[in-house]
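Re: the 233-residue chain
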Amino acid sequence: MTGLMVGKIIFSLVYGILLGIITIPLSKWLAKRRTDDPSKLAPLVKTPIRILIVFAAIVAALGISFTTNTEDPGALREGVRNIILLIPVFSIATVDSLVRKIPNPLLLAMLVIQAVYITVVSIMTESIDEIPKAIIGFFLGMVVCFIPSLLKIPMGAGDIKYNGVIGLCIGAAGYFESMILMAVFVVIAFVYLKISKKGGMKTLIPMGPFISLGMVIAMCFPLSVLFSSSGLI
């Protein structure tokens, strides 16, 4: 095991633990401001849930750390952006799972992080290529979200805005990948509800956790990179 790998593991463990610890009180505070029912916050008090959040944070940090090529300045900048994005993304998933609402301050935080990233990349590369990519991704994310409404499938305003921000942050290709993954996870969830007789296709479930999971995987394993490395494109 090389020193770089050891460093990535240590960094991921420390960052993941801190991310999990930050996510719990931050999500509790944001959720508390959006509900009058204290029972909805009860899961965050349970030790298994706290451990699950910390564990998920460590896995996400490991995923981004080990899929980031630290020898490539561009990939390294993107990896730093991705690891920082985990902070609002994890809280969005947690808050939405508790109260079915996506806090605007967290979406704003993602916008600020991406704005800083685009500014740094533009200065370092003396190019504005990232700006049109972000704009196209944003509008694509917003437009795609209107398709369910046309099919009379309810979709919350928070989910629509979240999709737009994701498109802005990881571009059109990354957005499509995250949405495909999200759809797969949702189907699995509905199958579980059906088998366990806890619900069905009409059961309302929070979309934030599935959208967030799809985004994190898309950041770790972008299809464009996978295809290019395999020689398919």
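Helices lie at 3-32, 47-66, 73-99, 104-125, 130-150, 157-195, 208-220, 223-230.
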